[in-house]
Specification:
mainly beta, 706 residues, five-stranded mixed beta sheet
Length: 706
Amino acid sequence: MPRRTVCNIFRMKISKNKKVNFSHCCQLIFIGTSCILLVGCGSREPQGQANIEAISDQDMSAGGSKNNDRHYRIRAAVTADGLQIEELENDAIHNVEWMKSRGEDQVANSKNWSVFHDFNFVDIQPESGIDFRHYPVDCATRNYKPAHYDHGNGIAAADINNDGKIDLYLVNQVGPNALLLNQGNGQFEDITESANVGLEDRVSVSASFADIDNDGDADLFVTSVREGNKLFENDGNGNFTDITKNAGLDYRGHSSSALFFDFDRDGLLDLFLSNVGRYTSEFKTESKAIRNFPFAYYEAFNDAFAGHLKPDRTETSILYKNMGANFFKDVSDKVGLVDGSWSGAATPIDGNGDLWPDLYITNMQGHDQYYENVNGTKFVSKSRDLFPKTPWGSMGVKVFDFENDGRQDIYVTDMHSDMSENVPPQKEKLKSNMRYPESLLRSEGASIFGNAFYRQERDGSFVEVSDHLGAENYWPWGLSIGDLNADGFEDAFIASSMNFPFRYGINSLLLNDHGKKFVDSEFVLGVEPRRDNRTAEYCFTISPDDRIITGPAKAYYEKITKDRDGEIDVWGALGTRSSVILDVENDGDLDIITNEFGSEPMVLVSNLNEKKPIHFLNVELVGTTSNRDGLGAKVMLYTKSGMQTRFHDGQSGYLSQSRSPLYFGLGDDTSVNKIEIVWPTGKTQVVNGPIEPNQTITVEEEQSVR
């Protein structure tokens, strides 16, 4: 039997004469500007990436270092009962007791579902040619601090060489990003080096594909932490040129997602750059994430999670207007869009129906913001008018039509509220029992402590209905939306889970039950458990001469090393950060690809087309007066079963914007009666049927449409 040691941290001083009990809350808590940290997170040794010396999984499963007679293999995981330290051998490292019963219960419940679910996903990553692996900085791993480095990394998709297959770009923190060319049949080729888009000299965060110059190809924008964002122009064949400086987009700060949209409807895509806030110091430190790969990054503040309380750490987001000729100008002040939220993402939405794209901006530590676009000339805050309460710790956001009523619903995921308390799995579908004090929250009673789902009503107002629909989950980052069972209603995949030192948390796959509710289906559809029942990854090794550490990570180091005098191989939970839904194999059903934190991606390929006859239609827009990508268009598709609506915004997942056709599942319908497009110009174009299914139809904007 494996030896098991349970370590609980109960009390630590916060400030003079004040103590807080943490037996059920083993993590960072703030009262005012004072803070305590109970446990930390570890970094990982390399595995398998090109041109990087690696330690294999086989080495780790055999016990790690071969140079010490005494070594340990432990898994550290904060649960509702505190920090658990377990010495485990072989596959026991992946055993999570509650997973089996949870899966069995979900499968049993599925017998009563009316939504189609007789299909599944299989992770083909080992056979896909994708050998990319994400490596976190030490501040998010070995020397863990509760800072915003652990928000991780995006994944974006686009057909970069116009061959009809969707390619991928995956973002890394330590080591190169990866550009992967889709070869068909689920196979990819790494062309990062030849395309010169690796950016291995910086901590990258997000990626966005968009046609910035209306020449018909996917250009690439990548954000980073303090080393400068990058804009690459595509020549149409997948060859990229760095045009950042001349484009005026070489901002250096704590950037997160990049949203391309045409706020003034002049036919050129503008850029809204979400900036988080200043969570790093001026000190650069060397990363130990990859052996023989020198890399320095800006060390995070110990109190980064309280940065929103410090005005001098505010870093406003930026609205850039596309001036043409690949030049962008900061017009934030000019149009009144000066937002200091600690923001990771934003989405366009026509909230008042006037055809001008408004902006919903998430705030990961406070109130989300909503700005109404006034004829493309200025933005006016209407935040609390439309959204009296918003999630306190918002991460991902997506606008889509949940009920097929033609209206815009908004789904917002909330990670940071879930960080206030570690809960057992049976409470993951509940809102957070908030443990942070008001001095940290500054909520003033206007926060939702969990996910939000805003259903738009007939009068244009929004009603929050997340619990009614079953939209809550635990530790969510971002969500991707797509019709995974091709029944005509869009479903949701939510990239979720923290990593070491927290317990394993599942990704959520929510099937849309005909616009009535979501049903949890990740176990039914094979997303959970992961390939080979994996729940943990090797993170890092603590050597006998590496026992002295200061700062927030000291608490967990002491617990892990207690009574262990040799080398300690530390394992921690797997966790997904971002995802994209696309048809990898061009076989008519939608697949899911993720970017993990400290691990390789998942390539979840669907077998839906083997389980039932699929009817679908892809719609690709080509703007002429509008921007070439047609971003901002509203597309309505009519069949005998009714109408479906897609809002074309390119938002494909957390920290990501992609460029791909709009997918419509048709259910049992075998013909499309008509397609109606409201272009960003406000003009409407109709494509009359009958239109045959199972094809991609390209609609070019007409000059004479009404």
